[in-house]
Amino acid sequence: MQIFRNLKPYWKSVIIIALLLVLQAYCDLSLPDYTSKLIDTGIQNYGIENCSPKQIPEKAYKVIDGFMDDDEKAVWKKYYKDGSDGYYYLTEDGEKHIDEVDSACMKGLMMYYYPYQMVNSDEDNEIKAGLDKMGITLDEMPEEMWAQIGEQMKPTVDGMLDSMGEDYMESTAIACTRICYDSFGYDYKAGQMSYLKWAAVKMLGMSLLMAAAAVLIGLVASRVAASVACGLREKVFNKVIAFSDAEINKFSTASLITRSTNDVQQIQMVTVMMLRMVLYAPILSIGGIVKVVGNGAGMGWVIFIGIAAVVILMGTLMVIAMPKFKVMQTLVDRVNLVSREILTGIPVIRAFGREEREEERFDEANKDLTKNTLFVNRVMTFAMPILMFIMYAISILIEWVAAHKIDAGVLQVGSMTAFITYTMLIIMSFLMLSMMSVMLPRASVAADRIQEIIDTDVTVQDAAGAKKLEAPRGVVKYDNVAFAYPGADENVLENISFEAKPGQTTAIIGSTGCGKSTLVQLLPRFYDVTEGSITIDGQDIRDLTMESVRQNIGFVPQKGILFSGTIASNIRFGAPDASDEDVKLAAEISQASDFIEEKEHGYDSAVAQGGGNVSGGQKQRLAIARAIARKPKILIFDDSFSALDFKTDVAVRKALGEHVNDSTVFIVAQRVSTILSADQILVLDEGTIVGKGTHKELLQTCEEYRQIAESQLSPSEIAASLGTDSERQV
Q1: pTM (2 decimals)?
Q2: Percent of the chain topping pLDDT 90
Q3: H or E element: which one contains 1?
Q4: What is the pLDDT of residue 537?
Q5: N-to-C CA span, the chain
Q6: From the DSSP assignment, how many helices (H) and strands (E) are in the chain?
Q7: What fold does the segment set 469-552+635-730 form as a domain?
Q8: I need a surface site. Which of 364, 420, 490, 625 has the fewest CB within 10 A?
Q9: How confident is the model at residue 725 (pLDDT cuts 50, 70, 90)?
Q10: Could you give phi then psi for residue 49, rounded to 5 degrees?
Q11: pLDDT at 178 over 70
Q12: For the residues of 112-163, what is the DSSP string, one character each?
């Protein structure tokens, strides 16, 4: 149902595919009928399609007229005219109503000409004995004696009509028509080659039309499936982009990648197969059943045996394989997760000599997936040979039953050939549905996993009626803020209250795990506060659009993340319209201009995915330049100076003070030396603010801060810090 819902926007294409499938099925179902006629009419009946003679001797016409009832005589006389040359001819109007003429003259024609067949046979019979006794032939027999022959033949013909199938009865009547033509030398064989050629042309035309329909179906189905996959990837991507960190952590990056690629590919493949096979199978099977019923061979029970065998086989295989199908996507996730961890952490793995253990870990995940896949494939490998056995067994059964019917004179060879073909088409249609059942479980799991992402409620999103943050000054206020991670029992932050103003630097320091990064991540709404509020210029950020809030924030994460492209494109990442001068100024402030200008292509130098071709310090400086180039009202440095040496750290902060003096700056730091000159320092301990003030004030009033400072600064530096401002050292 999810797949069908995905097809809703493409309903016009689906209708076109359905119409083309009907056309393809019509051609497919017509070919066996043509084959049957080619054998029965073109070969066995010498191209004679109807039992009504086009020309008949006058004597035969009058005798046959005597065998007919009043209704049949009316038709007979209406559509035949006397040629005044000893023959009667079928009129043009009779050609147009040939089925009506056939029905009227079939019985009388057989009663007249079947005795000729009996006389010419090698078997003894009453008619042959009577003629021999009288010493005359059928042609010499007077018309009044034909009445007696008719009385003898009537029970025989009536019995044939009751016991023979319609096709075989018509063939027998046509055989009588040939005797009629042979009696006066009518060259009916001349039309045989014409009939065979025309039948071949029609079969070739049907085949070409069917091939063209199949190609068009494949083309349209592929385009629809590709569009569905494109739409799903877009939905998943847009949803993931809107996720807060809570949703990202819930699914894991590896799982999101698998769902966006492998799972969508499964849906795309099944969509193609559904449009080409699942829609075609019922059309073909229903058409085949209608043709079989109309065939009149009386072997419909064979079809039900074949269908039952296919359904039982595939049902058994699915019961065995279904549980493994459900596990497969989870195992693919596991392989992707392990692969991603190993590839990302190769330097650490090598440094700690863990190659062998990581190889074992990957091998374990890979083998679990391999074992699961092999089990499913081995189970399903039984399907094809057994299905082929069923199909050939059904063919043999049909031939065995049909042989007895042909021998009994109630079935023709061509009808048997057509019945076999129709039966194979019907079984093949059920086989197509059965083979789809192999693919559907995995696609079903994939669809559920994709839908799980799409249906996930985003915890951080714009409120109804959210306003844009326009012309902000950048005054940030935390008012009694508390925060707990989703699913956590305790708050990470408690009672956080402070104010940060433009032109001032607010630094945040504390022990590892005290909530420093969490505190600044609440401002761009990576998470929403659990209690309290955060305001910008007095407006609660939850009442503002996230886009407008984030457009005014320059964020530098702990780990500098770069994107594939050039140095210039990375610096312009947050400000696409930034001029070359702005880019160069941002690089100078972040102290990145020196190493950039040393490169052969300068700012057009390539940056590998993830910034793999630059060092950690260079990556960090480019990340700082990227935030500065945006010219934001609020700048957040989340422990961004840790990868810089002390000299570069000082130079960057000095340049920030000179060029970025109207922004509200937040610095999360581990080093006291980084925040010595901050206008406001917040000291966090276990998620609460235990100290607030300048460096000098905190040394005097906050024991936790003093302990941190004493662990990093020398006694002389601390003493200087406690002196006058003119003695303060950076």
Answers
A1: 0.67
A2: 23
A3: none
A4: 92
A5: 67
A6: 29, 15
A7: Rossmann fold (3.40.50)
A8: 490
A9: very low
A10: -90, -25
A11: yes
A12: HHHHHHHHHSSS--HHHHHHHHHT--TTTS-HHHHHHHHHHHHHHHHHHHHH
